[in-house]
Structures are given as C-alpha cells and as structure tokens.
Design goal:
With about 425 residues, this protein is α/β, with parallel strands linked by helices. The chain has helices at about 1-25, 30-35, 40-65, 185-200, 225-230, 260-280, 305-315, 320-335, 355-365, 380-390, 395; strands at about 65-70, 75, 80-90, 95-105, 110-120, 125-135, 140-150, 160-165, 170-175, 210, 235, 245-250, 285-290, 295-300, 345-350, 370-375, 400-405. It contains eleven helices and 17 strands. It is elongated and about 110 Å long.
Length: about 425
C-alpha cells in the first residue's frame, strides 16, 4: 500500500513538472511576438491534450474489457491440479497496450497462498485466453481464479483497477488409502452379526430411552421420540449392544508452520476415513466422530460423495488451541465411559502427549478396544522421532495397538493387526 501511494505521488509530481516546464517555455523562451502566437503555447497545449487523452483512454478501456472465468471442476482429490482459464475480450476500437492480470489461489483460511501476474496486449475487438493450473495439496475448501485487473494508459500516468469479488470455490476431497488389516474386538463382531439385526430391527424392542450421549450408535436413536421432544433420545436394550467401530478425528494440530500443520491435518482426516472404510468392508457398524468448525459434535454414519462434501465444508482448521485439545480428550473420555457406545475406539490424532495417551489407556480400562493412529511431522526421523513419540510406549503395557504415520499413504496395504 505504501509503495502504491508513493508511486502515485511520483507520477503526479512528473505531470506537474512537465506542465511547469511547458509553461516556462511559453512564457520565458522567445520574444513577445512569439509568445503571443498559438505556436508559443503549443507545447503546453500538447501536454495537456496528451494527459487528457491518457485519462480518457484508461476510462474507456476499463469499460470495454470483458472477462469470463471457467474451471473444469468444482471439486477434486487432494494432490490434483485443477485447470482454470480466463478469457478476455476487448470490445472497443482501442488497442489495450498494458493490461496486468493477477490470478490467485487461497489457503483454507481464505488468505492468498499463491499469486501470479500476467501482462496482456489486446487489439481492437480481440480475445485472449489465459490458462492457470491450480495445485491443491491439502483437504478443504479453497478459492481460486482471477483476483484483479489493472489497465495502464500509454503514458504510464493513469491506471484503473478492477477487483474481482466473485471467485470459484473448489472442494478438495481426501485421498483415502486401502488398509491391509486391523484387528477389532471379537465381542464387537459377534454383537454386530448376532444381536444388531434382531435388537435394532424392531424399534419397539427396547427397555427405555435416555438423552443421547457422545458415542451412542446412530442406529440406537429413537427418531420419532426425538422429533417430538426436540432432542436426541437413545433406546436402551436389556442387553448392552456395542456393534462396531467408532473413529474419532482430532483436529488439535501444532506444527512448525502452516504447511506442516496442514499436512498433519490431512493425515488425521484420511487415516480416519481409511480405518472407517476398512471396518465398513468387514460388515461392522462404523461411525466417524469429530467437532466441526462451529464447535458442534458430529457423528458421520455414511461417507458417500455428498456426505464427504459436507464433511470437508464444515471441518475445522488445523489449530494448536488448547481448548480444542481438551474438547477432543473429553469426547474420547465420554465414549470410553459410555457402555452403550461402540466397543472399538480408533483415535486418529497428532497429539501424542501424556494427556491423549492417558485417555486411550482409560478407554482400555473401561473395557473398550482402543487403537491410535498417530500423525507426526515427516521431518522427524531416527532419534528425533523416538523422542517425539516416547509417550506411546505406555500403550504397550496395556496391549493397546498404535501406528505412527507421517502421511495417510503410510497405511496403504499396511497390516495393523
């Protein structure tokens, strides 16, 4: 902003100096007879006319320039590049000598992450297409396209800016690997096949209802009573049912910089979907739990394309906020203490501290079958990595499984049993 203001001051000073020089020539140079003629004032008049023409030129050029943005898709998979193109059309008889076009890509927070500037020259009624490939390396909602257009006159004295308010939004979907195997509690599988079909098939086959608690399977919610009462109510059966797997996504991420935090966040999201896909493929009732960007807890029982689009749209950013960290720990604790909740609890997190490890151990002590998928920065190797995950050693004492990854690709075909 300071640079632009200084540039405008310099241009204004140059105009004043040129006009002053022309006025000096008209009043001082030559005799009185010469100064009284139109020829004597010609330099001054010429400069004034040129400045007026330059001002008129940029005003007409701004009104005459049209642009059209196109994108091949509104969503893609992480790691893909989305091709953009912007077509410009000059609808006047003028030659647009200097048109500066700025294209951009935002980060998930809406701030400009990458920008490129291109200069164009358009003849009368000419068209020009500017291609722009957008690399998208992280999961989330992004903006991309044309940011602003700057038209400069032929003297370089005046410019007109057009700020583009409407931009394209791109939803970058998770890239989910295929897990080789993961051992779940036998009790859960037995419950799933022998009890779930009979107990939940008849909505009247329950003992009583209570308020919904975090970790309650979606299939145990009494939807009719919930609709009448205005709050979720859970059906309780004579025999405790724990059919399947609940996967918790922890968005408390503390990286060295924004890129590292986003990489850890991607690993958490994609590993959670990877485990959930595997559990679902084994016929287990599976849910994904997370807290969205509005602080609301969500239970995702299906993750088709529409559900994933909604998940990506409302998921929170990577944050080192201690409040988010505490909320996730409390959520896991509630699931661990809820006898009605799923028996298998998988926590996908970048938090490998004593607080999260202790919470997972508490889940084991509450007769759950926990498992941790721990995302760590890829820069950590050897001793640095050992020091970073040293707290995970406590899980071995309780025979709790865990897997350390730096990206979700580390789970491709991996045997976690």
């Amino acid at each position: 902003m300071v640079t632009l203001t200084r540039r405008k001051i310099i241009k204004a000073a140059i105009c004043v100096l040129i006009l002053a020089a022309c006025l000096f020539m008209a009043l001082v140079i030559g005799d009185d007879e010469h100064r009284a003629t139109a020829l004597g004032w010609m330099p001054l008049f010429s400069v004034i006319v040129l400045i007026a023409l330059a001002f008129t030129y940029v005003s007409v050029a701004q009104r005459s320039l049209r642009f059209y943005e196109t994108a091949d898709t509104t969503y893609c998979t992480r790691g893909d590049s989305v091709p953009f193109s912007v077509e410009f059309e000059n609808r006047s008889l003028l030659v647009l000598l200097n048109v500066s076009v700025e294209l951009f890509v935002s980060d998930v927070n809406g701030d400009v992450a990458q920008a490129s500037t291109t200069s164009l020259t358009l003849g009368p009624h000419a068209k020009c297409e500017v291609p722009f490939n957008v690399p998208l390396e992280h999961v989330g909602m992004f903006q991309a396209g044309l940011r602003r257009i700057v038209i400069t006159d032929f003297l370089g004295l005046f410019e007109r800016k057009t700020v583009v308010e409407k931009t394209s939004h791109i939803c970058v979907m998770p890239r989910v690997p295929k897990l080789g195997s993961l051992e779940f509690s036998d009790d859960s599988e037995v419950e799933n096949f022998k009890i779930l079909k009979t107990a939940l098939a008849d909505s009247l086959d329950y003992a009583y209802v209570r308020d919904y608690e975090p970790g309650d399977p979606l299939k145990t919610i009494h939807w009719k009573l919930s609709a009448r009462s205005g709050q979720y109510l859970t059906r309780l059966f004579e025999k405790t049912i724990s059919p399947g797997v609940i996967v918790v996504m922890d968005f408390h991420v503390s990286g060295q910089d924004v890129d590292e935090s986003m990489e850890l966040r991607d690993a958490v999201i994609e590993s959670a979907l990877c485990v959930a896909d595997y559990a679902r493929s084994k016929g287990l009732d599976t849910e994904i739990c997370y807290t969205n960007r509005f602080g609301e807890r969500r239970n995702l029982g299906a993750w088709d394309e529409a559900a994933l689009l909604n998940l990506v749209a409302e998921m929170p950013q990577a944050t080192g906020d201690e409040l988010v960290k505490q909320q996730t720990i409390e959520h896991v604790q509630q699931i661990a203490l809820n006898r009605q909740a799923q028996n298998n609890v998988v926590v996908c997190t970048a938090n490998v501290g004593t607080d999260m490890v202790g919470t997972v151990i508490m889940a084991r002590q509450s007769r759950k079958n926990p498992f941790m998928v721990c995302a760590v920065p890829h820069r950590l190797v050897d001793r640095d990595l050992e020091r970073h995950v040293v707290q995970l050693g406590a899980l071995d004492d309780y025979r709790i499984g865990y897997q350390v990854i730096s990206a979700s690709d580390d789970l491709q075909g991996r045997d976690l049993s």
